[in-house]
Backbone:
């Protein structure tokens, strides 16, 4: 499931960075934290895969310009249907019924807003001095927590629900936020925190403290709105910035309460029903300069709470392959063993016995954590050359490279012995060499964005990781990967002259290989894995999944949930396409995430079978062998290209004869899905009349890379 953070016009870049990093730190192991803009909210099928939508701080008026109308309708319907919304500062103003901001002053903004999650008025700024895109008005304000919501009860301690708080007040970053007028008088609204002292800028029009954060029940969903910024990590603020004033200043005050801020935000997210990371065991260490607290000592490029980048280990199924790759890489390196590429720098480490250098930024950062994209500095990535054998699991505890190579060899032997597949099973090479890192930026980026390196790598070279902190998806999507997701990228050289086998079909073949690598095994045939056009992998959620209860109530078909996807980037290199194929699939994720192993457990439970679960190593090996066989058959075979896979593909996909609305034409047209064209892999559809009958001659064909398919709403729209 995803957490979407709005990144369109009006959002403060600083608030956006803090929001993304704090969410990744606290919930990133359970959710994909992704940014989305106004076009994405309007055109993408995001609702069903989203656990939380966040609108961070910034300016409210651009939100109204870009989101009013159809987009706001989708947001409100999403929340009313059980979704969650988190509005921070400007996002909180925007989520209220009406806004009153800086009345009578140059920055005055007032009027009604469409979302209306809070039925009353959000009024501000609570404290004076606000200036757009400036820290001059920033302050560390005290907030008083609602103890009925946040106190740690004995029951919570006994149940292990460690989301209560031991403190009753704390200090949080503030810059221009509002308060929620008479919040306690509105049904369905709970005040989570109050400003500790009366506002000094505005008249006191009601007794008591002003509401700083509220939770609003909206239909079946929940909206949390806050005038303060609990997402701001003070260790990423520069106390030396003159806009904060002389030290000790706002930043120093916030740093003293940083641990409380993190616990508070964690508790808020948990109260919203999200799965959260365990609480920090100890307080962060602070650095003191001339008696002033300046920040947490972090390694270069690190982001608090986000896993640090780990070394990459290069190994092969045979030592000779590693030796050949080593010679190639040394040819790209300078005298110090460093490869400087377009997007990344790599340091070659000769062996496991050599000392692995500390990570160093390749470019300096002027302000800690905020001058590079999402607070991450570019760091040199270490590649440890494992000449004789893969590293032991004491070095790579999350992925056993030796076990992967053993299983790869075993599967190849089994397929070679098979009468049906031996024709395409001789001398298989995919996965012969593997580059693995426990925590990486993105396997796809490291290959695709470093063309000089990529074009020297052998066909079938694979890069995989346990955690990606900047994973790449289709379009503009990026995320931090959850545990249990099998994620890898591989190099494929596809001949240009294979006119009968267009490279566009590669994405279809990879997705099909993922499904068939599981469902073609004896006993696993009935696992409900499906394909969604053009490159997503879905599963029918088991009956014990919460979504199935909703489906049963609605008397609809079983709920299908995305569990994987494929991304293909291409470059032209002489007589061939140099493709970098990225794939991620939920394999061994813990509950409640739907994964392949989750499906197997449910199948065993309902059928009495004892099918074995997959490991990351065994599933990766199965997929690589299956895809390489498919690709060889695709290129060779009888020269009919994808026609050889039509029956198998349609048996797995979700769309046969489905009637959908095509929004890429004006006026919109109702069409029936007929299949995929065998020349260029286009989605074939034909217009239908009011009775659902095909209209002969009115056919529409859609490119896979230019369109998005929302199955739930039956819409095909242009991909942003």
Residues:
């Amino acid at each position: 499931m995803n957490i979407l953070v709005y990144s369109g016009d009006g959002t403060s870049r600083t608030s956006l960075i803090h929001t993304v990093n704090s969410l990744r730190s606290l919930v990133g192991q359970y959710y994909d934290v992704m940014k989305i803009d106004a076009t994405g909210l309007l055109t993408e099928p995001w609702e069903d895969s989203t656990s939380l939508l966040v609108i961070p701080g910034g300016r409210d008026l651009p939100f109204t310009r870009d989101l009013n109308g159809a987009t706001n309708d989708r947001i409100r319907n999403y929340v009313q249907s059980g979704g969650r919304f988190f509005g921070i500062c400007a996002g909180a103003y925007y989520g209220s019924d009406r806004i009153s901001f800086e009345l009578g002053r140059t920055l005055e903004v007032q009027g009604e807003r469409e979302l209306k999650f809070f039925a009353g008025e959000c009024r501000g700024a609570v404290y004076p001095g606000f200036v757009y895109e400036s820290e001059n008005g920033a302050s560390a304000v005290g907030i008083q927590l609602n103890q009925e919501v946040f106190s740690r009860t004995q029951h919570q301690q006994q149940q292990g629900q460690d989301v209560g708080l031991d403190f009753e007040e704390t200090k949080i970053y503030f810059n221009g936020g509002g308060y929620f007028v008479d919040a306690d008088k509105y049904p369905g609204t709970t005040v989570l925190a109050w400003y500790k002292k009366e506002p000094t800028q505005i008249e006191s029009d009601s007794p008591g403290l002003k509401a700083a954060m509220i939770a609003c029940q909206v239909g079946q969903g929940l909206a949390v709105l806050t005038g303060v910024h609990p997402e701001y990590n003070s260790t990423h603020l520069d106390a030396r910035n003159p806009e904060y004033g002389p030290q000790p200043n706002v930043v120093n005050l916030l740093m003293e309460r940083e641990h409380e801020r993190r616990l508070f935000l964690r508790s808020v997210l948990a109260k919203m029903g999200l799965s959260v990371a365990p609480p920090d065991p100890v307080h962060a260490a602070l650095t003191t300069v001339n008696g002033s607290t300046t920040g947490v000592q972090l390694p270069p490029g690190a982001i608090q709470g986000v896993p640090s980048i780990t070394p990459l280990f290069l190994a092969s199924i045979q030592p000779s392959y590693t030796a050949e790759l080593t010679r190639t890489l040394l040819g790209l390196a300078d005298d110090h063993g460093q490869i400087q590429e377009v997007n990344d720098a790599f340091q070659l480490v000769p062996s496991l016995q050599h000392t692995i250098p500390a990570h160093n930024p390749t470019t300096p950062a002027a302000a800690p954590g905020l001058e590079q994209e999402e607070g991450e500095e570019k760091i040199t990535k270490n590649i440890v050359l494992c000449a004789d054998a893969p590293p032991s699991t004491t070095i790579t505890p999350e992925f056993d490279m030796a076990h992967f190579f053993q299983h790869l060899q075993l599967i190849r032997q089994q397929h070679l012995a098979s009468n049906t597949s031996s024709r395409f099973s001789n001398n298989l090479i995919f996965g012969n060499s593997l580059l693995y890192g426990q925590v990486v930026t993105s396997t796809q980026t490291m290959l695709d964005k470093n063309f000089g390196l990529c074009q020297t790598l052998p066909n079938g070279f694979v890069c995989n990781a346990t955690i990606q902190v900047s994973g790449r998806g289709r379009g503009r999507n990026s995320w931090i990967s959850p545990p249990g997701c099998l994620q890898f990228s591989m190099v494929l050289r596809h001949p240009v002259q294979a006119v009968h086998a267009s490279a566009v079909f590669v994405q279809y073949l990879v997705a099909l290989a993922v499904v068939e690598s599981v469902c073609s095994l004896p006993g696993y045939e009935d696992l409900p894995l499906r394909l969604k056009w053009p490159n997503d992998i879905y599963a029918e959620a088991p009956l014990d999944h919460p979504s199935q209860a909703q489906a049963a109530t609605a008397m609809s078909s079983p709920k299908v949930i995305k569990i994987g996807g494929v991304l293909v980037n291409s470059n032209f290199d002489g007589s061939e396409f140099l493709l970098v194929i990225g794939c991620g699939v939920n394999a061994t994720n813990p509950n409640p995430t739907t994964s392949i192993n989750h499906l197997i457990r449910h199948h065993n439970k309902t059928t009495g079978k004892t099918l074995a679960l997959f490991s990351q190593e065994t599933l990766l090996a199965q997929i690589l062998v299956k895809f390489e066989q498919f690709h060889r058959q695709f290129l060779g075979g009888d020269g009919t290209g994808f026609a050889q896979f039509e029956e198998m593909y349609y048996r797995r996909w979700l769309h046969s004869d489905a009637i959908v609305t095509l929004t890429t034409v004006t006026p919109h047209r109702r069409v029936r899905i007929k299949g995929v064209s065998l020349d260029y892999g286009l989605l074939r559809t034909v217009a239908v009349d009011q009775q659902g009958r095909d209209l002969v001659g009115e056919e529409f064909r859609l490119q896979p890379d230019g369109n998005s398919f929302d199955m739930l709403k039956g819409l095909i729209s242009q991909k942003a």
